[in-house]
Amino acid sequence: MEIRIGKFLIETERGDIANQQDMDAVVNAANAALTTGGGVAGALHTAAGPGLYKECKPLAPIKPGEAVITGGHNLPNKFVIHCLGPVYGRDEPAADFLENCYKRALELAEENKIRSVAFPAISTGIFGYPLKEAAQIAVETVLNAIPAFKHLQKIKFVLFSEEDLRVYNEMLSEIKK
Ligand code: AR6
Q1: Domain named Macro: which ranges (predicted)?
Q2: Would the pTM count as exceeding 0.95?
Q3: In angstroms, what is the span from residue 177 Cα to ligand 1's centroid?
Q4: How far apart are CA 105 and CA 95, in angstroms?
Q5: Domain boundaries, the chain
Q6: Is 29 in contact with 6 (CB distance < 8 Å)?
Q7: Pocket test for ligand 1, best of 40, 46, 97 (most atoms within 8 A of CB)
């Protein structure tokens, strides 16, 4: 699904964050040490090759709500923005940390003149954040940031399951009305 807000485009799709052609940057749901891990991080590091971790290592550790940017190495994207989301039930206030991840990722995108970014549903896998609550924060944070964008033209939310895609699409349909 896609919705247009002025010149800005928000898209959703069911897919793999490690296979995003035509996007300047992809976002990693990282761990504090910026090591390979599983889920999104595992998929991105595997596809990017060992050069990604070599570039990440000196940038670690990062704290919940923080983000750092690296090259895309063997990925089809020029950049990877690594965000550390909150572990649900441990890093509080979780909503603030998650919001900061999206804010910081968008700031880094702007600073690097990035036009398009694909986000996974940060924190909603191994870190246990309920999908619907996390989706609301993701969508609202992007919407609030749009007026300040100078370079960004497109955000894509890449969801791993049909159910997750449905939740995002329902939320975006509400905005469309
Ligand atoms: N493409 C898109 N979405 C995916 C993919 C993929 N290839 N794989 C999983 N998802 P997670 P977190 C979905 O666990 O909760 C890592 O080991 C998944 O279904 O990747 O922030 C790190 O090293 C879920 O909806 O990230 C950290 O230790 C969402 O992406 C920890 O997990 C996020 O799941 C981070 O946990």
Answers
A1: 1-176
A2: yes
A3: 31
A4: 16
A5: 2-176
A6: no
A7: 40
